[in-house]
Design brief:
Radius of gyration: 20 Å
Structural class: alpha/beta
Bound molecules: nicotinamide-adenine-dinucleotide, zinc ion
Shape: globular
Order of helices and strands: EEEHEEEHEEEEHHEHEHEHEHEHEHEHE
Largest sheet: 7 strands, mixed
Length: about 375
């Protein structure tokens, strides 16, 4: 067991605290990782607001990269010294999804068995089974994905959640590719990553929609060919018009990605897709939300598919090393997502800046 500094949320809506925690030595199937960088994601804020569950105290942070310090006795896939990005989809290999060859939908992903604790022994709940606003964290070995060790930790750690969710929503879930038009509604970290994913896949046009002009500028720098300020313009009409400029007769975009997580923006996505097109919901709604008055004939009449995307339907072992290689080759600008590097005592202030929409990602660097 060792003691390290870490950021916890002790109770609903209380500011986060920097405290000392106990990290057990890794047991069977586990690894201790020395964290080098961890992004501040909207989901960390949801945890601290009690929006995920009530299992306080939470050990926050889950978009991280670092170096494996020690592994349990039976661990062979990773070894001390490996540079890894942490993931929240360590596939079990044994559930129905895994058995039918679709491990990206694994229903029983692995986390560490032992618990990290406060100094008084109180067990911590690590965010998304990771908990990486900490100098060191204990995870399941399968949560460690080896990538090119010369990559910048603050940039590639973001693949651990939001950036992978966005890129995967476009490519894995939406099927973005050459010859397809893509629209993205909501251009925060996740939406802009979806724009970057669509660009990487060769889709065109790529239409970015947001109510914040700054976000639209960023989206353009990441590959959006058109931008729509939906606080000024009807986004459905605008998407239809832009898509039809490239593909005459198109009645919308082939793939429309909702990256806000609200009924009204999902409905915009629904009506802005072409016939037989695909809607991808990657934004996370709250339990009280529903879509009012959607005529069933419109669902039937437009054909196509209505999908949701958890973690961009990614398979970390397949997607992280590939995306890190593209980053290293200068073909995927992960640095552009890192608005600022902060120290471990700056998480609460980073939540504030997130509210004001000034940052794509603040990244804690240790
Ligand atoms: N599915 C997953 O696996 C996954 C993973 C990570 C995050 N998420 C979710 O994705 C969503 C986006 O996350 P983020 O980190 O990008 O958040 P963010 O707050 O950085 O971005 C949200 C964006 O939506 C814009 N927006 C808000 N209302 C809008 C409206 N009515 N029309 C158009 N744009 C609007 C905002 O201006 C902002 O740019 C969240 O719901 C988050 O929980 C999902
Ligand atoms: Zn499984
Ligand atoms: Zn996240």
């Amino acid at each position: 067991m060792q003691q390290v500094r870490a950021v916890i949320a002790r109770s609903k809506d209380a500011p986060v605290e920097l405290v000392t925690i106990n990290v057990p030595d890794p047991g069977p199937g586990e690894a201790v990782v020395q964290v080098q960088a961890c992004g501040v994601c909207h989901t960390d804020l949801h945890y601290r607001q009690g929006g995920i569950n009530d299992e306080f105290p939470f050990l926050l942070g889950h978009e991280a990269a670092g170096v494996v310090e020690a592994v349990g006795p039976d661990v062979t896939d990773v070894a001390p010294g490996d540079f890894v990005v942490l993931n929240w989809r360590a596939v079990c290999g044994d559930c129905r999804a895994c058995n039918r060859g679709e491990p990206q939908y694994c229903f029983a992903t692995h986390n560490a068995t032992q618990k990290m604790t406060l100094e008084d022994g109180t067990e911590l709940s690590p965010a998304l089974g990771i908990g990486a606003f900490a100098e060191k964290t204990l995870v399941a070995a399968g949560q460690c994905t080896k990538v090119d060790p010369s990559a910048r930790p603050a940039a590639v750690g973001l693949l651990g959640c939001g950036v992978m969710a966005g890129i995967g929503a476009a490519i894995n879930t939406g099927g973005a590719t050459r010859g397809r038009s893509v629209a993205v509604i909501g251009c925060g970290g996740v939406g802009v990553a979806a724009v970057a994913g669509a660009a990487l896949a060769g889709a065109s046009p790529i239409i970015a929609v947001d109510i914040d002009a700054k976000k639209l500028e960023t989206a353009r720098s990441m590959g959006a060919t058109h931008t729509v300020d939906s606080s000024q313009t009807d986004p459905v009409a605008a998407i239809k018009e832009i898509a039809a400029q490239t593909y005459p007769g198109a009645e919308g975009a082939d793939i429309v990605i909702e990256a806000v997580g609200r009924p009204e923006t999902w409905k915009q996505a629904f009506y802005a897709r072409d016939l037989a097109g695909t809607v991808v919901l990657v934004g996370v709604p709250t339990p009280d939300m529903s879509v009012p008055e959607l005529p069933l004939i419109d669902v039937f009449g437009r054909g196509g598919s209505l999908k949701s995307s958890w973690y961009g339907d990614c398979l970390p072992s397949r997607d992280f090393p590939m995306l890190v290689d593209l980053y290293q080759q200068g073909r995927l600008d992960l640095d552009a997502f890192v608005t600022e590097e902060i120290s471990i005592d700056g998480v609460e202030a980073a939540f504030e800046r997130m509210h004001h929409g000034d940052v794509l990602r603040s990244v804690v660097v240790l």
